[in-house]
Amino acid sequence: MLEPLLPVRNNRCGRWRDHRQVINGVIHRLSTGVQWRELPDRFGPWKTVHKRHLLRSADGTWDMFLQHVQAAADAEGGLDWNINVDSTSVRAHQHAAGAPKNPPPASPGPSKGA
Fold first, then answer.
1. How many Cβ atoms from other residues are within 10 Å of residue 99's Cβ?
2. What does the pLDDT look like over 13-64, one tens digit per residue?
3. In angstroms, rounded to a whole number, what is the distance separating the alpha carbons of residues 102 and 114?
4. Alpha carbon of 9 to those of 14, 39, 43, 48, 53: distances in Å?
5. b or e along 3-27 (b: 16 or more beta carbons within 10 Å of the residue's beta carbon)?
6. Could you tell me if 42 and 48 are in contact, meaning their C-beta atoms sit under 8 angstroms apart?
7. CA 65 to chain CA centroid, nearest Å
8. Gap between the Cα atoms of 51 and 24, Å rounded
9. pLDDT 10s digits, 52-111
10. Which residues, at least 6 apart from 25, have a Cβ–Cβ distance to it below 8 Å?
11. Three-class SS string for the chain?
12. Which of 16, 20, 74, 92 could make an S-S bridge to 79, C-beta 3.0–4.6 Å?
């Protein structure tokens, strides 16, 4: 589905890594949260996947891919635009856990040793 949107290889530069392999590497990295250096070897060199991700993010290619896939799915009636969010899918920052912001004041009573 995305193949017509991908850049074509020109013969002026070296060999390109397979687009499918690189896209799968980016998707794997984003879905699992692993560091780039820990990307499995089946996606090719991690530096290549990272560089292509940065390049495609900067020029808006990922947004174009998303819009293309959403438009195709919506045309087929396979896209549900209803979104539900409940408390199980929203995480608060660790500092929003309800701990007091200031330490409690010291009690004016006698010390432990008195």
1. 7
2. 556 677 888 889 999 998 898 999 999 999 989 999 999 899 888 988 888 8
3. 27
4. 9, 25, 19, 16, 17
5. eeeeeeeeeeeeeeeeeeebbebbe
6. no
7. 15
8. 14
9. 899 888 988 888 888 888 888 888 887 777 776 666 656 667 666 666 667 667 766 666
10. 39, 43, 44, 46, 49
11. CCHHHCCCCCCCCCCCCCHHHHHHHHHHHHHHCCCHHHCCHHHCCHHHHHHHHHHHHHCCHHHHHHHHHHHHHHHCCCCCCCCCCCHHHCCCCHHHCCCCCCCCCCCCCCCCCC
12. 74
Token pair belonging to 43: 């996606």
**Structure tokens of 1?**
């589905």
Is there a contact between 25 and 39 (Cβ–Cβ < 8 Å)? Answer: yes
Instruction: Output the six-digit token pair for 77.
Output: 């009636």
